[in-house]
Structure prediction request, 280 residues.
Amino acid sequence: MDVLGSRIIIAAFDGWNDAGEAASGAIASLRAAGGYEAVHSVDPELYFDYQYTRPSSRLDATGRRELHWPEATLWRPTTPTDGPELWLLSGSEPARAWQAFVSEFVDVALRDDVSGLITIGAMLSDVPHTRPISVFASSQDDRVRETHGLDKSTYEGPVGILSVFDHFFSRAEIPSASLWASVPHYVASAAPSPKATLALLDRLEELIGVGPAREHLRTEAAAWEASIDAAAAEDEEMADYIRQLERTRDTWDSPDASGDAIAQAFERYLRRRGDGFDKR
Prediction:
C-alpha cells in the first residue's frame, strides 16, 4: 500500500494560501465529482475575527435573508471510488488559536483512521502565464519523498495554516505532502485562475493516481490564457515583461537548469511575504 494510505485528506484554505483561487477551485472540482457529507466543522466564534473574515448576507429561495459565517469543514465521500478515499478539508484560514484549530482536525483524523494528508496551495510568483504552471511538490516525511520523488523544503520563516497542518499531522504520525502552484503575479486580478487549478489537480493525480474529470478546466484555462494575451497585446510594457519572464522560465526548463529552481522560487515567495503572511 502507498505510504499515504487509502484514506487521504486533501486540504486547502481561502486567503493567503490560495492565489488565484486555485487551491479552493481544486477542492470545488473534487467535491463536484462525487457525493460528500460533513464530518466535522469548527465553531467560528473560536477561530475567526469577523472584522478580518466577515460573515456574508444572502437571500434564500423565498427571499428570506440569511447570514453565512466563516467556516472550516471536513467532508467525506458518500459513495465508493476506485483508489484511495479523498476526504476534503476546506474553509477560511483562521485568525487565532491555530494550534487548537488544527488539533481539532487531527483528533478527527485519528478517530476516523485517516492515513495521509495532502495540503494544496497557490502562490503569486514571477512566472509567465504562457508556460505550464509549476507545482512545487514537497514533504517532510522521508518515506513520502522516497516513494513519490518529492522535494524537501528548506524554507525557514513565517508560514500559513497549511504548514501548521503538515507539522501537526506529522507529529501525529500521519504522513503528509504539500503541493503549491505558482500563479503569475501580474494577473492577480484575473481570478479565478483555472490553469493553476488544473495544474494542481494534474499533479495530485500523478501523486495518488485518482482525480476528477478536468475537460471543462482545460477549456477554461485556454480562455483564461487568451484573455491575458489580449490584454498584453494592448500594453507593450506588460508584453515586454512577459517576454522577460518567458526567457527566465525557459532557462529554468532547459536541461542545464538546476533541479532546485522551483523550490528556490517558492522560498523566495515566502520570504517576500515576510510577517505579512496572515494579511489579505
